[in-house]
Each structure stands twice: as C-alpha cells, then as structure tokens.
Design brief:
Pfam families: VanZ. InterPro entries: VanZ-like (IPR006976). By secondary structure, the protein is of the alpha+beta class. The protein has three domains: 194 residues, no CATH class; 75 residues, no CATH class; 92 residues, no CATH class. Helices cover 39% and strands 21% of the residues. Helix 2 packs antiparallel against helix 4, helix 4 crosses helix 5 and helix 5 runs antiparallel to helix 6. The longest helix has 27 residues. The two termini are 38 Å apart.
Length: 465
C-alpha cells in the first residue's frame, strides 16, 4: 500500500504535512476542551491524518474505480516483505497513541482494524485512487494495530507500577463485549456494502514472487520508458521460467502493465491503457494510414529491430474501430520467429503491444511445398479439406530451429480455424494424434517441411493472428 508512497509525488507530501498539522491543532483544542492531554491528542490526530493521506490520496486522477479486492493466500510471506512491514508500521503510532490516551486497548485495536477495512473498500470504489485493494494490506495493518496497542499497554502498566497513574489499562468483560458488538456491526456494514459493489478475486501469492532489487530496477527503467516517470507502481513480480530457464517480470502500474523477459531485460508485451477507449455509436475507426503512422513511430522509438519486417494492418477491437499493425519477417518463404504487434485505438493512441526479438535462424532447406503438404493432410483426413496453412519456423524437440507446415483441416464448409499467418512457434512438439482447435470440426496438423513427416502440437501453443 505505502511502498515508495511519496516517491515522485510532492503533492502527497505537502498534503500529508498540511493535513496532519490541521488535524493536530483541532485535536489539541478538542482534547483541552474535554480535559485530555492536549499534546497527546494532537499526536493522535496527526497519526490518523497520516494514515488517511498515505492510503487515500488520489495518485492517479484518471484511473477508474477498480471495484476489485484481491484475496491473497500467503499472509505470512506477505507480512515480511518490505511493503508488508511498512504497512505494519503505518498503524503502530495511531494504535499506541490512542491506547495511551484512552487506556482502552481492545476498542482501539478493533477500531483500527475497522478503519483499515474501510480504507481498502474505499480504495476499490473511488475513482482516481490508482491503488489496489488487497487482503494483505488489511492483515498487516491489523498486526500494526495490535502491536501498537500492546506496546502502549505495556507502557501503561509500567507507568502504573511506578506510581504514575491510578489505573494502567482499562479492560473489563463488559467493555470487551461492547467493543466486539460495535466492531461486528461495523464490519457487517462494510461487508454488506462491498458485497454489492466489489468483486473479490482469489490471487496467487504475489509476495512469493517479489522481484529482486535488480529486477525492480529493470522494471523501473521500462516503466519510465513506456509509461512515463509519473506512472505509479502497484507491484513488480518475478515469475521463474520452467526448469530454471528465462523468467518474466510483470510490472503493474496505474497507467498500464508491462511484461519484461529476464535476464535479457527485453520488454515483451504491454498494456498501455488501463481502460478501453470510450466508444460511441458515431466513433469512427482509425484509418490504416493513421494506425501505420502511430505504430511506426512507437516501434521506431522502442523496437527499431522490427522495422526490417513486412507490415500488415488489419481491423481489430470492439466495433472494429482499432487497427492491429503487425511486422513479420520471411526468409525463403518461411515465416521467421520475430514478431511485433501494435494495437492502435480510434484515438490514434497505442493500446497494447507484443514483441518477440529473435534473429532469423539458419534453417534446413524446405523440400515439401504447399501442394505436397496439402496432399499429405487430405490423405491423413480423408474427406476433409485444408482451410488454411502456414510455413513457419519453430524449434523441434532438441531445441533446434526447423521449418514446419501448420495446416487447418476440416470438412468442406466448416468454420475455418484462425489463420496462422504471422506467428512463428517454438517449443518441443508433443507426440500423439493431432488436436482440435476451438472449432470442434477443425484439426490442426503440423508437418515437417523437410521430410513430410506428421508432427503434432498442443493447440494451446498454436497461437493465431
């Protein structure tokens, strides 16, 4: 919640100082009026103001309300991260000062927990927050409230033992019962409100994948490059690759999401608009020329290696108002592994992109042409026809680059599977019979373009454009 909270946000710092001073002054005079220690009241008010500013200051005015709360499974792991410990410390001063002021640790602790729950739901429901509603935040804030109340209670007992007070800590069965009744009523009200307005999502343990300092620095540079210095980071996570292979860094911000390959540090994909452009009945689609101009400018700035490929523009998105600008490379008729796709919205802004930077590999000569590949396919599936096909490069079971034919085969008149043009695959080929695509009557057949032997692939790895 508060990791690097003031970094690059002077407005929040000014607001925190001003709000804390005002709240401290008001609390001081209210305390004096009710015959309470003025300085202690002022400090308690300032601590409360600090929490409100740190958690509810709008850091992304253009962001819509997320209306989502993430329920994490790794409570223990999340507590001992840097962000988790900061969230613990955030509530310690308020709970300690309020306990010392009232000498009632149970009501104070429960009130702090209810405050944290209210903050989390408010973050989810308020536009412009640019923050994540997360169960780990509630958990760590609650630990901080308990810790602060315990520290203050121990201090009060010690002060009483040396004659400083007539009664150290006021705890009675009646007080505890009333506190829990009030707490239950407050949590019920929060729960009832969120039940109709917030979507709760079970999340994997994000804290277990917390990026290292080096990975966070790589993410920071990529965020500044693609999303700007003013983008506020919500999380940076690292996902290791299989069998110790290259992994992936996922950087989430209020302005978009980036995926970064590790350890190469190459940005492989990104969502640059957290919300889809508003479309009305009269929204005009972006023209091919405008989309190509915007896509070329973006690629020239970030992926100049892709400009050597051939360009294609196709309609995409809701109401076909966006355009997908793609770059592909062919060598001797074989689609190479590199890929570059940029989605341009009707406002001529980049919505998302995917990039795959792989130099053209050396391949064995192709001996099976399209006509021969289609003949092999129809022999394997008598009565069916080939609806589409693509000659592309991908790695074989030994990790070597090799040319393959990928063919969509099915009954005449059946709904054809998506064309494979523009996507070169890699990864080991699975053995067994050919698999069907999402269209149940269509089979995807993979043929070795050198020998004509039938190979198969998992349909999940058969991406389409």
């Amino acid at each position: 919640m508060i990791q690097a909270i003031f970094k690059g946000n002077q407005g929040m710092l000014v607001t925190a100082v001003a709000f804390s001073l005002i709240t401290a002054l008001v609390s001081y005079f209210l305390g004096r009026r009710f015959e309470k220690p003025g300085v202690l009241c002022a400090l308690t008010g300032a601590a409360l103001a600090g929490i409100i500013t740190a958690t509810l200051y709008p850091i992304s005015p253009d962001a819509p309300a997320s209306a989502t709360c993430f329920i994490e499974r790794g409570f223990v792991t999340g507590t001992f991260t840097a962000q988790g410990l900061l969230n613990v410390l955030l509530f310690v001063p308020l709970a300690a000062l309020a306990t010392w002021l009232t000498r009632r640790p149970v009501p104070v602790t429960l009130a702090c927990v209810a405050l944290s729950a209210t903050i989390e739901v408010t973050q989810a429901l308020t536009p412009g927050m640019g923050r994540a509603c997360d169960s780990i935040d509630l958990w760590t804030n609650s630990i901080g409230a308990c810790a602060g109340a315990l520290v203050a209670s121990a201090g009060l007992y010690w002060d009483t033992a040396r004659g400083g007070r007539d009664a150290g800590v006021l705890i009675s069965r009646h007080q505890v019962r009333r506190s829990f009744i009030g707490f239950a009523a407050g949590i019920a009200a929060i729960g009832l409100t969120s039940a109709f307005t917030v979507t709760f999502v079970m999340a994997e343990v994000a804290w277990a994948n917390t990026a290292s300092a080096e990975q966070q620095e790589a993410a920071r540079k990529a965020i500044a490059d693609f999303l700007g210095e003013q983008a506020h980071v919500a999380s940076v996570q690292f996902f290791p690759g299989p069998a110790g292979g290259p992994g992936r860094i996922s950087a989430n911000t209020d302005r978009g999401v980036l995926d970064i390959e590790w350890p190469s540090r190459e940005v492989s994909s990104g969502l640059l608009q957290p919300t889809s452009p508003a479309l009305g009945p009269d929204t005009a689609p972006v023209s091919d020329g405008a989309a190509l101009k915007a896509g070329n400018a973006f690629v020239r700035d970030h992926f100049p290696w892709a400009l050597a490929g051939r360009t294609n523009v196709s309609a995409a998105g809701p109401q076909q108002t966006s355009k997908l600008v793609s770059w592909r490379s062919r060598k001797d008729g074989v689609l190479m592994p590199m890929r570059m796709d940029v989605l341009v919205g009707p406002d001529r802004k980049i919505i998302s992109f995917t990039a795959r930077h792989i130099p053209d590999p050396e391949l064995p000569s192709v001996h099976v042409d399209r006509r021969q590949a289609q003949a092999i396919a129809t022999r394997k599936f008598p009565g069916d026809v080939v609806h589409s096909g693509e000659l592309l490069a991908r790695t074989d079971n030994a990790g070597r680059w090799h040319p393959y034919w990928m063919l969509s085969v099915g009954p005449p008149g059946a709904e054809a599977a998506p064309s494979q043009d523009g996507v070169a695959q890699d990864g080991p080929l699975d053995e067994g019979s050919s698999q069907s695509t999402t269209a149940p009557s269509i089979q995807v057949l993979v043929l070795d373009a050198v020998t004509g032997a039938v190979a198969t692939t998992n349909p999940d790895s058969a991406e389409s454009d």
